[in-house]
Structures are given as C-alpha cells and as structure tokens.
Description:
By secondary structure, chain A is of the alpha/beta class. Chain A is 34% helix and 15% strand. Chain A has a domain at 102-354. In chain A, helix 9 runs antiparallel to helix 10 (325-344). Chains A, B: GO terms for molecular function: UDP-arabinopyranose mutase activity.
Amino acid sequence: MANPTPVKPRLADELDIVIPTIRNLDFLEMWRPYFQPYHLIIVQDGDPSKVIKVPEGFDYELYNRNDINRILGPKASCISFKDSACRCFGYMVSKKKYIFTIDDDCFVAKDPSGKEINALAQHIQNLLTPSTPFFFNTLYDPYREGADFVRGYPFSLREGAPTAISHGLWLNIPDYDAPTQLVKPLERNTRYVDAVLTIPKGTLFPMCGMNLGFNRELIGAAMYFGLMGDGQPIGRYDDMWAGWCCKVICDHLGLGVKTGLPYIWHSKASNPFVNLKKEYKGIFWQEEIIPFFQSATLPKDCTTVQKCYIELSKQVKEKLGPVDPYFIKLSEAMVTWIEAWDELNPPAGSASKPQEVANGAPTKPK
Amino acid sequence: MANPTPVKPRLADELDIVIPTIRNLDFLEMWRPYFQPYHLIIVQDGDPSKVIKVPEGFDYELYNRNDINRILGPKASCISFKDSACRCFGYMVSKKKYIFTIDDDCFVAKDPSGKEINALAQHIQNLLTPSTPFFFNTLYDPYREGADFVRGYPFSLREGAPTAISHGLWLNIPDYDAPTQLVKPLERNTRYVDAVLTIPKGTLFPMCGMNLGFNRELIGAAMYFGLMGDGQPIGRYDDMWAGWCCKVICDHLGLGVKTGLPYIWHSKASNPFVNLKKEYKGIFWQEEIIPFFQSATLPKDCTTVQKCYIELSKQVKEKLGPVDPYFIKLSEAMVTWIEAWDELNPPAGSASKPQEVANGAPTKPK
C-alpha cells in the first residue's frame, strides 16, 4: 500500500499560504525557493495604517483590519484582533482546496543529514495520502516509502481515511505553555523524529497553528481560531480551540488528522510573562474544556462540517457557558463564523438561490 | 516533567528475560553484555528430548514440554505446542516484577550514529516512566530528556498513568503478514524513528511479541498467547491476541501501553508460504475480532486483571463463538490460563488459605 498516490511536487493552483503578521515579512527570503510558486494570503494584525513590506517576487494579497471590516461587515466581530487568531480570515477568503499556514518567526529547518526541509512538500504529501485513524500502525505512516501495514492490521482498514489535517512540528523552540517556558527557559527541541502518524479516532491533541496544513474543502469551515486577544479574556488558545473542534468533527465525519513531519525552525520564544497573562484563564478552563470535547458527540444528521460546527456551538453554549460567560460569546461567534464562511463560500451552483427564494420566483427553464 | 524517575541501568533482581526456542541459543553471544546480568527463562518448544545449548555464563532455567506438563498437569492444555506462543508459560513461572521477551532471531541493532542499542535498558526506561493514554502529546514521550508536555496539554493529566507494556520495534525485517511478505519480499525497515509514544486509550494496535517488555504485576495475568500451532487451526496470532486482550484491559484499568524505541535487528524473514498457511484463518477472522475488541467494555466490578480476563473470556465465547468453534475452545483456555496463573502465583499471604478452608479449621493464634 505504500505510496498509492504519486505526490505532485507543487500544487500552486490548489494551495494558498496564509500568514498572520504585524511586521515586514523578511522571513520569506529564506522560504523563497519553496513558497514563491504559491499564492500568499497575508492577514495584517494590529494597526491597519502600518505598511507591511513583502519581499519582491511573491504573489500575494494582503488584508488589514479595515479590509476585514469592509468585507465581513458586522460579521467581522468573529475575527480576532491583536492576536494571530486573525489568520483564520485568510482561510475564509481563500478559494483553494488546501491551506498551509505558518508563523513569521518560523524558518527552514534542516534534517539530520543537513539538508533543508521542504515543509510544504511534506504537508502536501501528508494531505494527499490517507490517514489511519481506526487502528494504530506500529511502523507509523504505512503509505510512506519503505513502510507498510504490519502483521495484524485488518485488511479492511488498509484503504484508510481521507486526510483533513497535517500538523507539523518545530525544531529549536518547542511550543510550550508559559509555566513550562518559565521553568525550562533553556530547553530546545533538538530531536528529529522521522515519522508521520495518524492521531487515532477518539483521541484529542494540542494542535499548534505555527506550521499547519489542511484540506479546506474537507475541514476549512471548522478551522475557526476563536475569539482571542483584544477585548477578550484569553489568548494563545486559538489553535487549540480550532484543533479540539476539528478533531471532534473529523472523528465524526471519518476524516484523518496526521502529526509529525515536517519540522520548521522556530527561531524565538515569545515572552513567557506576556504569555502567562494571555494563557492563565485557558490553563484553568482547559481542565473543563478537554472533558467537554472528549465526551462530545454529534448526531448522525450532522453530515457537513457546517452542520457539525453549528451543533458544536450549541453544546459549547450549553456545557461551557456555565464555566464563564466568555463561552456564550464564543459560541455565538462560532455561528457568526459559519454564516460569514457560507457567505464568502456559497455551495457550488447555489450562489443565486437565496435571492430566488426571497423573490418567491425561481427561474424556470425557457 | 521530563525524567521524574532516575532509571536504574540494571534491574536484575526485578526482571526476567523469556526466550522461546527450538534451537541452540547462539544468538545470546551478541547480547552477552546486556543480558548476562539477568536471569533467563527458556521455554523449549517441540521435541523435549532435544538438548538446547545455552552459551556459558548465563544464569537460566529451561522448561521443555515435559516440564510444562508436569508443572501444570491437565491445565498444560492452555499452553501452545510447536508455536512460539509457548513463551507465555515463562511469564507464568517467573517471580519477577518485569518481563522482557525476545525472539532468538533478533540481534543487537545500531542507532543512526552506529552505536549499539541496549534494548533492555530502553524497555526498562519505558516501563519505569508513566504513559500518557488520555491525551496525545505531539512531542511524543514527555518524560524523556529534552522533551515535555506541549502547550494545551491539560496539567491535570501530566502525571500520566502507570506503564504496563513497552512494545519495541525492528530494523531490517519488518513484522509483515504473509501476503505483504509475498508482495514485498525485498522490503527492509531502515528507518530509525527516535520516539516512544503512548497508544491512546480506546485505540487497538498490533502487538508483536518479538521485542516486548511488560510489568508482570500490572498486566501479566492477561499476557496469554492463546492456542496456536500444533492441533490448532491458526498460528502467528499469539501476540496479536495477547495485545488486543491486554489493551482492552489496560484501558479499563487506567494503565498505559507504549510503542516505539527500542529497536532490535530482526535477522531473517520467516517463510511466507508457511506463514500464509498459519495465518489465513486469522486474516479472515481478524475482521470480526477487531470490531469485537473495539466495542468490548468491562463492568466496573472488574477491578483486577484476573477478573477482567475472565469477563473477557465470557465475551469471547458469546460473541466470537459463532464465528468459529475455535473461539469456544480459546475462551475455555483463557479460563484455564487464569486458574494456572493463580495456582502458580497465589496472592500474597493467601498461600495456605485454600487448605485451611478445606479443613474447616483455621489455625487459631495460641
């Protein structure tokens, strides 16, 4: 079963790179050989009057807060401000099948042989090959060159499941929470684990948005990074929130989530004191959020990501609302997000339907 | 949380090495620096009149079929003959806390730097540090040097769970089933994945008995390798059967199962034609066995491994009996195994109880 699908080295017509930023994008210079064939969607956070410089030769569109407000109108309230959670606006305006999102302090890593890692190519490889969420394969990704399913792996499960998410890792600065940063300020991740694996069905994981690929058609509408930053009681839980929601929905819809390769080089630890301030409510709340997501189930009639997400928003309101009023607001923002998503991404062929229905006069064939 | 427990390099008083074999144990020469401090339990399969040579200097006890029959009497029927499943007799007669079992065609592997891998030391490390079955850590084993729990990992789960099983892997000849062996006769596993990870709660995996460590006190009574080989319709599913039973019980009791490091060097592929004959019913049956184990639940009053295993044997009889009469026989052998286990491993302080009860005259303090 190894390598059933030949992987295209470039997928420029089908993938957008989404980058949230508040500064000039000098980091792109190092990524030039890998990213230049792709279209970039830059989501500028903070002061919209600031000019963000993008190195020459890149094909991009850039949205600042004024653009977001103009495009979404009142629904712009669901997009966070002064937090990298704003990146999910980029997922919404993309028209491509796949998204790769990366932080602007992440650089090209090297594998143990000293060779530069093409992170994007690995994400594409991960997304184009199936996942194995229903049974664990001890030799990791069975679709990889030189690997396969081991003895005892049911043959009926060897076709796997479509892959919705490819979660990449980080060399150098690991993605630790503020307390761990404070306790281990010098810890660096130097271990290159040469594996990609599927996170089994029914298991939650902490999804980091620093180096993340996903299939927008399969899961994009659930890749909402929540309400963080300016005016909110919490930060640094945007990707976690998206990961928990997405995993529950992927499990329900029979989609796969992979983690492992590729690595990027994470250059700089963010300030642990600032992080602690952003995180502390999340550290407390996650003790209730995780059990909530672990026991969340979706009814059978939730057959689309949108339906799943709306249902999940109701459960968030009901079950997490009592934890803090923030979750009521978040559950409402989840609904707004779906409304905005559907407005910008009308189902194929349905673009003019709402108007027709409103007029009560569907167009007849002549 | 990394390395909460300093690992003892040797644990000779607490660990036995169990080796099933039909031949002279020349392979031990390569393992001498690693195994010589330990006691070996050799389970001789096949013709008991054959003399198995063990290299000088090893401390061992050897059991052949005559010994097994003598020690277990009629209950010897639960121990397979002419199949490496016979190894589980060694688990039963050991008095140690930990077991490491290895096949006699497995040699010392080297890590990517060319250094010999001390497989036993890694198993001990795995068994002495906790597992993380309730939430996935994307940087793999958080208790390892240089690693920790990542952002978003609930703090309440960072103590982990006691580790019951350490499943090691194989370089060179991968553990493939006969069909895969036939299709890919030249495939070799050359990928050294530098990771140990916990198989999440609720997820089954194919446990291979080639390179396996476990905590006998925590899970030994469920480490039964079933009825295989001589007189049975199936072979090469001994370790799989044990793995599925153990995983369901570990999940129920809150114990952890790890897989990954250490690697051994698996020298020689077994004959795929012979394997196909042994496996073909298993390949067919596992399509029903896996869903059975995936949906198996144990009642709350199953608080010991023995109680769990007896309950599981009943469910095997009821749910898998209709698949083939073999499973009726197997379910009865599971009960016999537990009876034999308890006979050889009476609960502490209860050794003389049965006799006292039989006499109706408990000893009174004078």
